[in-house]
Amino acid sequence: VPAAFHYECGPGYFRAIGTRLVAGRDFDDHDRKGAAKVVIVNETLAGKYLPGENPIGRRIRFGRNGDWLEIVGVAEAGRYQWISEPLTPAVWDPLEQSYNSSATLVMRTRYNNSEALNDARRMVAELNPDLPIFEARPVSELVDFPLMPLRKSTAALSMMGGLAALLCILGLYGLLAYAVVQRTREIGIRMALGARASSVLALLLTRTMLLVAASGAVGIVLSIFALRLLSQVLYGSAGFATYVWTVAGLIAISILACLIPARRVLRIDASTALRQE
């Protein structure tokens, strides 16, 4: 394997940490010193070095003089060192076959955090009272620290995005309302010629919706292009529902911006509307 993260873990680690095994098996009590050396790899390694093949049963080694290791399982891809790292190949050895004195105990429990930590300390003390324990805390706290700058920046960007959306809504409303008022003379002529109020409203709404549809289509295309450019710094992408709600919001604002001034104009007498410039 030219380049891959290398870890050691015991049976049940992946289930405890919440990592899904997509193929093969987990380590068990038979994977100990003296037994055939085995490893679990992640999907990234399997896809990069064994594309289109079943990795279970295949053998890999680190360096030309390394021992051959049989792949017995494939874990889903993940990020292991920092949040923004690219998906990188990773390999796990059984802890019994590659001992590490600084191993970390991972627990999954239904109890609250304080009870679980107390039980873990008590069990470790029963096994070896002299074994030091440090940094014993919930995984959520370990994740919160590296995520703090991202969350702060996301909150700031969300506030700026909300302000930009508000300005966009106000601008859209003002633009469409002004456009309707500017057509007061046209509306007066139509009403004087016998047009019904409903038909005038339908005409205004139709033209407004055509404008919104064209601008919305351009905005969606630009947002998709922007997401591709920012894919390296984003950890999720806008789904179909996001676009639906955005377009629905634009349509609702556009209808209000059209209906409110239009209803006001339609209440004006036709002769008065005709005299307006």
Structural commentary:
- The chain has 277 residues and is an alpha/beta fold.
- The protein has 8 helices and 6 strands, in the order E-H-E-E-H-E-E-E-H-H-H-H-H-H.
- The chain has helices at residues 13-17, 43-49, 113-127, 139-182, 184-192, 197-229, 240-266, 270-275; strands spanning 5-9, 21-24, 38-42, 59-60, 69-75, 90-94.
- Strands 1, 2, 3, 4, 5 and 6 form a 6-stranded mixed beta sheet that branches.
- Strand 4 (59-60) and strand 5 (69-75) form a beta hairpin.
- Helix 4 (139-182) runs parallel beside helix 7 (240-266) and helix 6 (197-229) packs antiparallel against helix 7.
- The chain is elongated.
- The mean pLDDT is 80.
Mean pLDDT: 80
How many distinct beta strands?
6
Ranges with pLDDT <50 over ≥5 residues?
none
Strand content: 5-15%
Question: What is the number of helices?
Answer: 8
- The rounded Rg comes to 32 Å
* Helix content class: 40-55%
**Order of H and E elements:** EHEEHEEEHHHHHH
Give the overall shape. Answer: elongated
What is the subunit organization of this protein?
single chain
Alpha-carbon distance between the two ends? 78 Å
**How can the largest sheet be summarized?**
6 strands, mixed
Helix/sheet category:
alpha/beta
